[in-house]
Design a protein that fits this description.
With 378 residues, this protein is of the alpha+beta class. It has helices at 7-34, 42-47, 66-79, 81-100, 103-114, 230-266, 278-305, 312-336, 338-341, 348-356, 365-377, and strands spanning 120-123, 139-143, 146-157, 164-170, 180-185, 193-195, 209-219, 223-224, 268-269, 272-273. The protein has three domains: 7-114, Butyryl-Coa Dehydrogenase, subunit A, domain 1 (Orthogonal Bundle); 120-231, Butyryl-CoA Dehydrogenase, subunit A, domain 2 (Beta Barrel), CATH 2.40.110.10; 232-377, Butyryl-CoA Dehydrogenase, subunit A, domain 3. The chain is 52% helix and 14% strand. The strands form three sheets. Strands 1-4-5-8 form a four-stranded mixed beta sheet. The chain is globular, with a radius of gyration of 21 Å.
Length: 378
């Protein structure tokens, strides 16, 4: 895609596209079939610099612009949705440190995370607080020179292998969203972090998610920013994360469309390639139109990400449209494959299963609509 990026970034993106197709794509079906955690790709991804793509160069990252980061995530997702979900969950954690942490914490955590020496997780959701995370009950109380964190989180991507988990917890139970603070918890170094087995999911089977119970102590130095600033940090992180979800959706949708185009040229019914049928041509045209619209909306958000202005609305527009359009695109692409599309011999059914979560996590489609409407009415 000809996204508006810097010339030197184009070289990096074409290397990432090649890596994704040559290294990630060949294992995607096996990861899905066996539900193998995509962390197996971490060493190769780290060597390419992928684990720090979202971070500035002074934090050890690639310092990519918003459009280039979008293109990179799209390339990874187009090759393997599970790997992209592991990667972008790591970004949610490192973004939390970047946006909320002080210089000491950033210097301690980010270079290693960018180099892929450590893996991060982002723990906001709780069993009774998903769409409205301000309802969380996990809390942190002062104990000695630090905090005791108590509570539980659910559906936390990467947690089972994470070296650090950014945990959002109430330091003031009476203050709603303003009572939330963020903490870095390093589960391999302390006791009191109990991580349940990987959830069994419909799709993104190689992107593992876990429930976590906390009764652990962390030093004050592990708090990200001042007490009460955690919710604001989480919302800024999700503004970025939603653009990355849009990128994952368009990456998979583009792969589905490409598969449908090839199949429409090859598959014959009678003497005709099925691509001769106008009904299928219209489906392909609708797919291409929606894919272009999703990418254009996403670019609007990705470009604004670099300006310093707020882009919550643009990010919600991109996530809402791209994730819903991607579902329609992959569904049409499966239809074009007929019965073969429904089998595991082709990747279409995996694309659909992988795409389904994008309309739910990091704020469901309904929550994106409330964000967009709030912007209109404010
Ligand atoms: C595979 C996977 C990976 C995940 N990874 C992470 C992670 O790494 N970190 C993390 O913190 N969380 C993660 N999550 C959690 C995810 O973000 C939540 O599941 C999501 O935010 C929805 O919350 P919920 O499941 O509690 O649904 P609920 O909040 O219970 O919502 C149920 C339904 O009600 C609708 N609804 C809720 N409120 C409103 C409203 N105001 N108006 C209209 N409709 C509404 C929702 O849209 C939804 O359809 C993950 C989830 C999954 C399944």
């Amino acid at each position: 895609m000809n996204y508006p990026m810097f010339e030197d970034e184009r070289t990096v993106i074409s290397q990432i596209e090649r890596f994704s197709q040559e290294v990630l794509a060949p294992k995607a079906a096996q990861l899905d079939e066996e539900a193998t955690f995509a962390i197996l790709h971490l060493p190769a991804m780290a060597e390419m610099g992928l684990m720090g793509m979202n971070l500035p160069e002074d934090a050890g990252g690639l310092g990519l612009s918003g459009p280039a980061l979008y293109a990179a995530v799209e390339a990874v997702a187009g090759a393997c949705g599970s790997t992209a979900s592991m990667l972008t969950a790591h970004f949610l954690a490192t973004d939390s440190v970047l946006l909320g942490g002080d210089a000491v914490l950033k210097a301690r955590l980010l270079p290693d995370a960018a180099a892929g020496n450590t893996l991060g997780a982002f723990a906001l959701t709780e069993p009774q607080a998903g769409s409205n995370p301000a309802d969380m009950t996990t809390y942190a109380v002062r104990e000695g020179e630090g905090y005791r964190i108590k509570g539980s989180k659910c559906f936390i991507s990467n947690a089972g292998a994470a070296d650090f988990i950014v945990v959002y917890a109430k330091t003031d139970k009476t203050a709603g969203a303003r009572g939330v603070s963020a903490f870095v918890v390093e589960p391999k170094a302390i006791t009191g972090v109990d991580i349940a087995p990987n959830e069994r999911t419909m799709g993104l089977k190689g992107g593992h998610v876990f429930g976590i119970t906390f009764d652990c102590w962390v030093p004050e130095a592990n708090r990200l920013g001042d007490e009460g600033t955690g919710f604001r940090t989480a919302m800024k992180v999700l503004d970025n994360g939603r653009i990355e979800v849009a990128a994952q959706a368009t990456g998979i949708a583009a792969a589905a469309l490409n598969a449908a185009i090839s199949y429409a040229k090859e598959r014959k019914v009678g003497d005709h390639p099925i691509g001769d049928f106008q009904g299928l041509q219209f489906m392909l045209a609708d797919c291409a139109t929606e894919l272009a619209a999703a990418r254009a909306l996403s670019m609007q958000a990705a470009v604004k990400r670099g300006t310093g202005e707020r882009y919550s609305t643009e990010s919600a527009l991109a996530k809402l449209y791209a994730t819903e359009a991607a579902w329609r695109i992959a569904d049409r692409a499966l239809q074009i494959h007929g019965g073969y599309g429904y089998t595991r011999d082709f990747p279409l059914e995996r694309y659909l299963r992988d795409l389904r979560i994008f309309r739910i996590y990091e704020g469901s489609s309904e929550i994106q609509r409330t964000i967009i409407a709030r912007g209109l009415l404010s």
